[in-house]
Design goal:
With 155 residues, the chain is α/β, with parallel strands linked by helices. The chain has 5 helices and 8 strands; from the N terminus they run E-E-H-E-E-H-H-E-E-H-E-E-H. The radius of gyration is 15 Å and the shape is globular. The relative contact order is 0.16.
């Protein structure tokens, strides 16, 4: 089963749908890598003019897959080079729109913030929540707000 479902409503638009509904689209290392690869591939395609990223009907993404962190030590976490996954989103020259339905929590909130635009339903809830599970900070949230140029600054 693919963790990212790619749909192409027309030749210039691609919809990327997170596909882990059984765990509320928790961002496993495998999902983040598949998302990175999809974004890099789409960014290299001159036909693609916009990417829309979404989750399910009631949840965008529940955040990091905590189960994947349980037996992971600091050295293994660093070896995963998760920053490369986030960098692919930030450095993508094709505009990425986060279509947020329902919850975008922790890493899910980060994922939405890493996109160029966020379109959210009035019922959407975006929250960091890292202190609730005793993590010190998100992987990249601390720098997203001041390193993401506005679309008009991109040239």
């Amino acid at each position: 089963m693919s963790l990212i479902i790619s749909e192409k409503p027309n030749e210039n638009l691609v919809l990327l749908r997170l596909n882990r509904p059984d765990v509320r689209n928790a961002l496993s290392p495998e999902l983040r890598e598949e998302l990175r690869d999809a974004v890099l591939s789409l960014d290299a395609d001159p036909q693609v003019r916009a990417i829309v990223m979404t989750g399910g009907e009631t949840i965008f993404a529940a955040g990091a897959d905590i189960r994947s962190l349980v037996d992971t030590g600091p050295a293994e976490m660093m070896a995963r080079d998760d920053e490369a996954n986030w960098a692919a989103l930030r450095q993508c020259s094709t505009p990425i729109v986060a279509a947020v339905n329902g919850y975008a929590l922790g890493g899910g909130c980060e994922l939405a913030m890493a996109c160029d635009f966020i379109i959210a339903l009035m019922s959407a809830l975006m929250a960091s929540g890292f202190s609730a599970i005793r993590l010190s900070r998100a992987q990249s949230t601390h720098c997203l707000l001041y390193t993401s140029p506005s679309p008009r600054d991109r040239g």
